[in-house]
Amino acid sequence: MQVASINVSRTRRLVICGLCLAFALVMKLFSIMVPMLGFGAMRISLIGIFTTIPALAFGPLYGAIVGGLSDFVGWVIKPEGAWIPLLTLTSVLAGLMKAYLWILVGKLKAKSLVKIFIYVFGFMLVFGSINIWASHFYANSVYAGFLHSLKSGGQSQLAFATILPVCIGAVGLLLIWANSRMEKHRDALGFGDMFLKVFFIMLFSGIIICTVNTFILINIFGIQKAFLLFYLPRIIEEIAMAIILSYLLSIVYPLAQKRLI
User: Fold this and answer.
1) Residues 109-155 pLDDT 10s
2) What angle in degrees, to the nearest 10, is found between the helix axes of 110-137 and 163-189?
3) pTM (2 decimals)?
4) DSSP 170-239
């Protein structure tokens, strides 16, 4: 499950990356843009499958190039508003992150990944729960005062220390439980530990990029006062798409390795 062998020629890599880019652009034509607060805010599509394969197969450079080109060329083919260069840069960053995370998890066993998920999601759930308790029942405490003082652009950011970590933590632990229930079925389909590894990179890179993109968009369109109304649905969509794309990549990537790489 590591990056493809360096014996793959540069020409072959470029051809495969070109195919992935072409498929990604086709997927964009069939994507659905969900409007929020008067402009396009969430894209529902399968683009992520084809922008992720080069990162997994050939490493950070190819992942970054295909990620960036898919955003820019996709805008040229199907423009939906003005081109935002910063979003293209975050697409490049996404390709880099996926490649480096893939190299990292390639050395880990499935049980180790499960433990990492449990620790991270468990910490988020406990952390958020403690903050909710403190902010409501110990409102006069120094810690509660600190939580209520968290602001950006004059807007309270309390939800980032309370509601958001609780939701992500609870959903994450639920997914780990569901994963354990479906383990035998995935093994029968030949997924092995592929799903967990792909889900790891898709989830963590997706949450980071979604958060950065949200800050970019709210500053460009000036919607800071409605930040949570804008951010929370995007995070929910990101987690849901990470699950779907991870299952599909668990099928598509091994096939691509056998047939193309």
Assistant:
1) 777 888 888 998 999 999 999 999 998 888 888 888 888 787 655 56
2) 160
3) 0.79
4) HHHHHHHHHHHHHHHHHHHHT-TTHHHHHHHHHHHHHHHHHHHHHHHHHHHHT-GGGHHHHHHHHHHHHH
